[in-house]
Every structure is written in structure tokens, then in C-alpha cells.
Amino acid sequence: MKTRTKLIIAAALIAGTALGASRVAYAQSASVQAAIAKGAVGEQADGYLGFNGSPSAALRAEVEQINIKRRAAYTDLAAKRGVTVQDVAASVGCTTLKNRVGAGQAYKLNDGVWRTRSGSTPIPLPDYCA
User: Fold this and answer.
1) Cα distances (angstroms) measured from residue 97 to each of 32, 42, 57, 80, 117
2) Which residues pair with 44 in a beta bridge?
3) Could you say which residues form the signal peptide (predicted)?
4) Distances (CA, A) of 73 to 17, 94, 116
5) What is the pTM of this model?
């Protein structure tokens, strides 16, 4: 089965339960929220937070803990749905890029380039985000 088809199927399968994973995925401290607001930390198409620049050791540790929790939630959901962790993470990444990245916040697509969302202009989502 092609990767795109698998992702579409995975997205359909996890649509109802992805909210549970996303609740864990978005749990953030005040310092991480501030870094997101400044564009120093941002959402990535792969479903994880990343750094737009060089973070402090403390910020890096906090973001790594969030990503560990995200991966655990994605792993649990993938096991329940019979899909890969990457499929779940990419599906949540699509939802996050579409619905959670606000104006002025940084995000990174699969091309590795950091961008800043401008106003209410939609983020150009990867092809597999159906």
C-alpha cells in the first residue's frame, strides 16, 4: 500500500481518538508557551515540537519531555489502530499545523524550512494531509 494511501486510512481511523493524543501533545509549560509565542519553538509536520534557533538547556529539556509524551501517546494510539507511530504523528502534525499554529508562530514543513504564520493565511499542508 502506498504511503499516502496508508496515511489517509490512518487519518480516517484515528480521527475520533486523535483528540486524546492531542491533549497530551499540547500540554506545555509557561516557558514553552512563551518560546512558541516568540517563534523560538514551533510545531513540525512530523507531529513534534522543534527549535527555530538554539534553545537554552532548560528549554531543550522541557521540549524533549513534551516530545517524549507525544511519542508515547502516538505509540499507544498506533498500537490500538494497527498503524505506524509515524502515521499517527504525521496525522496529528497535519491537524496541529491546520488548527493550532497561530499568527506569528513558527512552524516547519517537511522541507526543513522554518516559516512564520502570517495572520489567518492557511499553512500550506503536506500532500498527505487529506
Assistant:
1) 17, 10, 26, 24, 10
2) 108
3) 1-27
4) 11, 16, 27
5) 0.81
Spatial contact of 92 and 22, defined as CB atoms under 8 Å apart: yes
Q: Rounded distance, CA 24 to CA 20, Å?
A: 7
pLDDT at residue number 130: 76
pLDDT above 80 (res 3):
no
Three-state secondary structure of the chain: CCHHHHHHHHHHHHCCCHHHHHHHHCCCCHHHHHHHHHCCEEEECCCCEEECCCCCHHHHHHHHHHHHHHHHHHHHHHHHHCCCHHHHHHHHHHHHHHHCCCCCCEEECCCCCEEECCCCCCCCCCCCCC
Q: How far apart are CA 110 and CA 115, in angstroms?
A: 12
**Residues 81/9, Cβ–Cβ less than 8 Å:** no
Cβ contact 103:19 at 8 Å: no
Q: Is the dihedral of CA 10, 14, 19, 20 positive or negative?
A: negative
- Each residue of 12-27: pLDDT tens digit? 545 544 555 555 556 6
